[in-house]
Amino acid sequence: MSGFAWLLTRWLYSASSLLFLCMVGREMGLRVIQATLCSQWGRQRNEGVFQDGDVVIGGLFNLHYIPSAIDQDFTQPPLYKPCTGLEIFSLQSVYAMMFSLEEINHNTNLLPGVKLGYRILDSCDGQSVPLVIGGASSTTSKIISKFLEPLSVPVISYFASCPCLSDRQKFTNFFRTMPSDVYQARAMAQLAIRFHWTWVGAVIVNNDYGQLGIKTFEEEIQGKGVCLDFVETVRRETIVRDARRVALTIQASTAKVIIIFCWHTDIRRIFLELDKRNITDRQFVASEAWSTSEDLLQNVALSEVASGVLGVAIRSSAIPGFENYLRSLHPSHRPHDEFLREFWEKQFGGTESLDDLQHVLTDTSQLRVTYNVYLAVYAAAHALHSLLSCPERPSNNNGSTCSSPQHVSLSELMRHLNNVNFTTPQGEMFYFQGADIPAKYDIVNWQKTPEGSLKLVLIGRVDGFDLQLNQSAIQWSTGSTKVPISVCSESCPPGTRKANRKGQPDCCFDCIACAEGEISNATGSVHCERCPLEFWSNDKRTACIPRELDFLSFNETLGITLTTVAVSGAVTTTAVFVVFLRYRQTPMVRANNSELSFVLLVSLKLCFLCSLVFIGRPSLWSCRFQQAAFGISFVLCVSCLLVKTIVVLAAFRSARPGAEALIRWFGPSQQRGSVCFLTCIQITICAIWLSFSPPEPHRDLGFQGSKVTLECAMTSVVGFALILGYIGLLACICLLLAFLGRKLPGNFNEAKLITFSMLIFCAVWVAFVPAYVSSPGKYTVAVEIFSILASSYGLLLCIFAPKCFIILLRPEKNTKKHMMAR
């Protein structure tokens, strides 16, 4: 027979032997069941503790344990040892059931006139199954519940925690005073979230307890910033090999917090392996299966590894009078108590007393499973009380019938269990929510004692979803009161954001600095937030600050440079004006229409000075004045050049026969009138533009930066285009005419100078358009000022520099004879 087949056969035999308690039937009206099953399985071994009563409640407890199987190689059937060893905590639970039943029998308000009896048996060797109180494990509870379900026999378990047993459709007759494992897994997840443990490992036993526990844990941490680095499973059959593997995984992991859903026997082996490798810096979070294990707490060899364990434990509560009851136990007083006799023989072997003895059995400081048994008995008693009190109440309309102690209706008993609601002797409200009771747990901490062992310290409680902790009382695995850090990546500081690493969990990330104009003002930000338009990020990218107003100022380097150049141009123009004024009677000044020259110098000075209007903080009036001053000054300047060019051409044309009248038609009056007319056109354009759609101060938020550009916005581009277009038209005409007259005879031909100046002028303003459009912020204004200054200097130098050179440095050429020579 293969190993698997042998295991299956063994299981089926054990399961079948756990089906029903043949002894417990007469008082509960189960004669048919008793007869059928006892005849089928034969006479049961009469082991246990019995007490007759009007209503007998059965109890099933694991008083002896089955040792773990050794590692299997699956080449032969596994070796299982028989039941051995007496479980002291289970024995304490047995006496908790007896004590509570005796307490109820002496209570005149609860089940008056009805005596409760009991049948309590050991479930290790599989000879019996409880009628009401029992199911010391989830597996046993499932089998008992499913078998008794057709008979409507209620089962109240004190230790079955599988979430599957909460399914009312599958287990209609099942109740328990032990919370579902769902709630302990949620509590463990709450601890990880509360202490910001974002990177944890997990070790689970390879059965429903471990698998469902870690599944619930993962569901609870979903989206809460907690990730699992690893999940290792262990089997009881291969625990030695599995423990070594788990220890190596924990050693290699960067997770400092380990969640464990296992039995205490498995944990002992794992801790021994960790101790061999001197791994003592891990913080363990324990499930209720091992969080209160005395075997581990008292093991000095494990104290370094296990110190600081934080565990979810079955809630504990005091049972008044129970300790005295335990200390009064003695085989001489209870000759039929086989369990007590076995305990006495192993512990004493004589007539000693428990009165003054410190023993685990009499220690009632941490009643956990024992208190669950106590609650189960009281729940059964209150349901029976409600059922048996039926004649005292008005008849109901749901067709239910009343029961007597001799004929208890099992279906009615189960209905009353569903509706049970009472206050325990400790003042606690008790009721069932389906199969379950409201989940309550203790949060315990393993702390070192001077003797080297560990003690259990209560540091918090869980009530449903409410987690209450005394954090200052926790002693962590590190030995300090500072919460251990367990993260894959350190939290990103303000000013940065998380950037997930490819192929890794969300808890593993890099911290990327926020871009300009974006901030994160909290630790661990996932995204950087963009600042409002009026604001910009500070240097640390942690706050949005108002953006600084930016404009071409007189105080900055660019503003100072342009101002200096403009003032220098105006001063130079004034100097030329003075020179021409002083030498106004010389042939050089008189020969080239001195009046237009003076007007041209004035217009050039205005051109230099108008550039200063563009510098400084824009205002309503400066925005309107700057473009008008620019447009009018340049039109006046170009008009003078155009008229001077026409005068040159007319003078040479008049020398031809029949053309004498030409110069008379273009005399000084006509020249002045032409300049005024051409300038008035520009003045009209500016007046119309400024009347209907003038430039206004505007904050330019489009240029992303720490500054807001304050500029004069063109509300109408058409007006500005007309101003530039008109200047360009006059300049082109002037360039064309000057180009035609560049080869006219004479020692000094002003047409050549005008040609050069107009070439520079047109080149500057043709380049101005693309530069103006593409320049950002205040540099738009700088481009326009540069164009004004460049074209003004071009006109000043090309036209007046040669004349000033002759006037000041070559006075011998400043004669009529020289001017007239060819």
Topology:
Elements: H1 3-17, H2 31-41, E1 49-51, E2 55-61, E3 64-65, E4 84-86, H3 88-105, E5 116-122, H4 138-148, E6 155-157, E7 174-176, H5 181-194, E8 199-205, H6 208-221, E9 227-234, H7 239-252, E10 257-261, H8 264-276, E11 283-286, H9 294-297, H10 303-306, E12 310-314, H11 322-327, H12 338-347, H13 369-388, H14 410-418, E13 421-423, E14 429-431, E15 440-448, E16 454-463, E17 466-469, E18 496-500, E19 509-513, E20 518-519, E21 529-530, E22 535-537, E23 544-546, E24 548-550, H15 557-582, H16 587-590, H17 594-613, H18 620-653, H19 660-665, H20 668-692, E25 696-700, E26 707-713, H21 717-740, H22 750-774, H23 779-809, H24 816-820
Helix pairs in contact: 3-13, 5-6, 7-8, 13-14, 15-17, 15-23, 17-18, 17-23, 18-20, 18-21, 20-21, 21-22, 22-23
Percent in helix: 40-55%
Stated plainly, the CATH topology of the largest domain is called Rhopdopsin 7-helix transmembrane proteins
CATH architecture of the largest domain: Up-down Bundle
As for the number of domains, it is: 4
**Would you identify the CATH H-level superfamily of the largest domain?**
Rhodopsin 7-helix transmembrane proteins
Q: Return residue spans where pLDDT drops below 50 for at least 5 consecutive residues.
A: 1-46, 392-397
For the sheet with most strands, the description reads: 8 strands, mixed
Straight-line N-to-C gap: 135 Å
